[in-house]
Amino acid sequence: MKQKFKIWLMAARPFSLTASIIPVTIGAIFAAKESKFQFIYYLISLLAAVLLQASSNMINDYDDFINKVDTKESGSSSGIIFENLLTSEELLKGGRLVLALGCILGLFLAFQKGGFILILGTIGALSGYFYTGKPLILKYRGLGAPLIFMIFGPLMTLGGYFVQVQRININVLLLSIPIGLLTTAILHANDIRDIYHDKKAGIKTLSIMTGKTNACYIYYGLVYLSYISVLAMTYYRVTPIWSLLCLITLPTALKNINKLRISNRSNSKLATLDQETAKLQGQFGVILIISILFSYIR
């Protein structure tokens, strides 16, 4: 049983789950200065978001395997199917089950907190499923990057906030920008690494459509704009002065950028760039959350 749990955890790609944890938490924490923090509802919204992301990861692995986008040579999936830990059908069924659990929690939140949560949850669930699922197969049409930004930026941050206070705040949308950009950079790093294999599979990603050189510039822009947006929000007092602590992570960001810059000489350097970018997103997000909490201390 313990071994089986580890396999399913691997299928969920735990290194990437900060993509949903961070924005939901930022939205909820930002709401704490306006009303009493509802910890139970925060946990439910967090679990719903994580389940929806985990299900998307599993279904994405299945679709990429069936469509021959991921192969043993590409090494771009979780590896669950190729290592014979789960069959493709088991992974699909598991992904759909996790999706259903996330939707049930979302429906509960919508019943308790209002129809706007239902709208956000429906957009998130459908986007996650049709990311690689037929008939929309959004990732294969070059729409992966903007979709990821929308889901893991404004949608989840606003959802975490709305669950707490049942209203919309423009500052929350602004706050979602740096996290959404860094989360998009995770996907984009993956797509840059997989340009050769994705071309071979006949799909289109933003990296393929722009070419590797321009794709690298897009990655640089996603990372740099994350820091610029925090500087701008701090200047205009959307975020507290403590938010400048996010600059502590800049050396890590520059290290990742340099790794990509020299990748033309060795594509193997890109093997873990998506995971390194996920770590950066997690560190940046945690510091941003702490900075907001610090601002509440008088």
From TrEMBL:
Keyword Signal: no
InterPro entries, alphabetized: MenA, UbiA_prenyltransferase, UbiA_sf, UBIAD1
GO CC field: plasma membrane
Reactions mediated catalytically: an all-trans-polyprenyl diphosphate + 1,4-dihydroxy-2-naphthoate + H(+) = a 2-demethylmenaquinol + CO2 + diphosphate
Major location (coarse): membrane
GO molecular function, a single term: 1,4-dihydroxy-2-naphthoate polyprenyltransferase activity
Chain ranges passing through the membrane: 12-32, 39-59, 98-131, 143-162, 168-189, 217-235, 278-297
Function: Conversion of 1,4-dihydroxy-2-naphthoate (DHNA) to demethylmenaquinone (DMK).
Protein name listed in UniProt: 1,4-dihydroxy-2-naphthoate octaprenyltransferase
Source organism of the structure: Clostridium ljungdahlii (strain ATCC 55383 / DSM 13528 / PETC)
Lineage, top ranks: Bacteria, Bacillati, Bacillota, Clostridia, Eubacteriales
